[in-house]
Design a protein that fits this description.
By secondary structure, the chain is α/β, with parallel strands linked by helices. The chain has one domain: Alpha-Beta Barrel (TIM Barrel). Helices cover 52% and strands 17% of the residues. It is built from 11 helices and 8 strands. The chain has an 8-stranded parallel β-barrel, surrounded by 5 helices. Helix 9 links the parallel strand 7 and strand 8. Helix 1 runs parallel beside helix 3. The two termini are 37 Å apart. Bound molecules: erythose-4-phosphate. The site of erythose-4-phosphate (E4P) has 11 residues, from helix 7. Transaldolase is important for the balance of metabolites in the pentose-phosphate pathway. It is found in: Cytoplasm. It comes from Sandarakinorhabdus cyanobacteriorum. One of its GO terms (molecular function) is aldehyde-lyase activity. Belongs to the transaldolase family. Type 3B subfamily.
Length: 217
């Protein structure tokens, strides 16, 4: 399972990239606004920090303008992945960019039928938002299971990129289902390494080691 960081915070991305555990980055207009930085500048900088795909989202509602925006974004770096909304215009743009060999991430997916359309449009990634579904009383993971089943039924190569991840519980559930990628806020990536018994055990080992009076180095 691949891990993407869902942020436009370059300091966080650099820190996570240094662990060797980061496979890519996803951004969206809200995350760019939160960064307070110029969109094109910050995306270009992020592309230099990671080898994997960096999703940058178009903001136009229509196909023709989406194509023009995608051309600007594609010119930023070779590891750009064009993020497109799950609308008819977004799907049309996905099909056109896929034909040109461009990586695409179809976002704001909330139903299995939407995911089916994205796969038919040749999307590299489909981004179902599990947290936002949970927020309105639906089961986000049920959607991930449905998409996994449908993609396997028809041998679609589109990767399931679980988005709107709120906690390690989402990551575990997505991994059990066999989702390809989870994109997470940096804090959630760090939480994956945490366990109270790890902390407790480490404290005990440190205390006992101190009693030996020895040193490895
Ligand atoms: C995914 O690409 C989105 O940027 C993201 O996961 C949205 O998550 P949110 O629901 O926490 O805003």
């Amino acid at each position: 399972m691949k891990f993407f960081a869902d942020t436009a915070d370059v300091a966080e991305i650099a820190d996570l990239a240094a662990t060797g555990l980061l496979d890519g980055v996803t951004t969206n207009p809200s995350l760019i606004a939160k960064s307070g930085r110029n969109f094109l500048e910050v995306v270009k900088e992020i592309c230099g920090l990671v080898e994997g795909p960096v999703s940058a989202e178009v903001v136009a509602p229509d196909h023709a303008t989406m194509m023009k925006e995608a051309a600007v974004l594609r010119a930023l770096a070779p590891n750009i992945c064009i993020k497109l909304p799950l609308t008819i215009d977004g799907l049309k743009t996905c099909k056109a960019l896929t034909a040109e060999g461009v990586k695409t991430n179809v976002t704001l997916c909330f139903s299995a039928n939407q995911a089916l359309l994205a796969a038919k449009a040749g999307a590299t990634y489909i981004s179902p938002f599990v947290g936002r579904l949970d927020d309105i009383g639906h089961d986000g993971m049920e959607l991930i299971q449905d998409i996994r089943t449908i993609y396997d039924n028809y041998d679609f190569q589109t990767e399931i990129l679980v988005a709107s991840v709120r906690s390690p519980v989402h990551v575990l559930a997505a991994a059990r289902i066999g989702a390809d990628v989870a994109t997470m806020p940096p804090a959630v990536i760090r939480q994956l390494a945490n366990h109270a018994l790890t902390d407790k055990g480490l404290a005990a080992f440190e205390a006992d080691w101190a009693k030996t009076g020895q040193s490895i180095l």
